[in-house]
Structures are given as structure tokens and as C-alpha cells.
Design a protein that fits this description.
mainly alpha; rod-shaped; 49% helix
Length: 93
């Protein structure tokens, strides 16, 4: 009965297209991240400052690092695979 329901089929198709487009966007974001070359740093730079006649070494504040995109291994691709598997079984004649 659900196989012949046009609204159900349209909903599945809509969700599939959305996930597919998100997967493409995620792939493109990952490719751009891989293409960009990281800046070469020469190590922490030490700066000298004189405060109240005392010499001290100031270190730069550590920067927040973003977790790599690969960490979630493109969840959209996994979802696409699951949806394709479902559709192949559900719509099999």
C-alpha cells in the first residue's frame, strides 16, 4: 500500500535529494580544507616584557582548534547508503 502512495514516495525522494545535496556540500568543504595549505609556524614565539622592573617571558595564547571534518566521516554518505539500501528492498518487485 505504501509503495503505491504518491505522497510517501515523494517524501522519500525529497529527503533523499536533501541528504544527497548535503553530502555533496560536505565533500566540497572537505576538499577545500585539504587543498588549503596550513601556515608554517616556527614554534612558539617568546616576547619579553618588562613589568615593574621584572623581566618575564610571555607566550602567545593557544588558539582553539576546530575538530577535523573527517571525525564524523561524512554522516550524510552513511545516511545515503542506508536510504539506498532501504529503497532497494522496499521497492523491489
Amino acid at each position: 500500500m505504501l509503495r503505491t502512495n504518491k505522497l510517501f514516495t515523494d517524501a522519500i525522494e525529497y529527503v533523499y535529494k536533501r541528504v544527497y545535496n548535503k553530502s555533496l556540500a560536505e565533500d566540497e568543504k572537505y576538499r577545500q580544507q585539504v587543498r588549503s595549505t596550513p601556515k608554517q609556524s616556527t614554534g612558539p614565539q617568546k616576547r619579553r616584557a618588562t613589568l615593574l622592573n621584572q623581566s618575564s617571558i610571555l607566550y602567545p595564547t593557544p588558539k582553539m582548534m576546530r575538530p577535523p571534518v573527517v571525525q564524523n566521516e561524512n554522516v550524510f554518505k552513511k545516511n545515503l547508503f542506508s536510504m539506498e539500501k532501504f529503497m532497494s528492498v522496499f521497492y523491489r518487485d
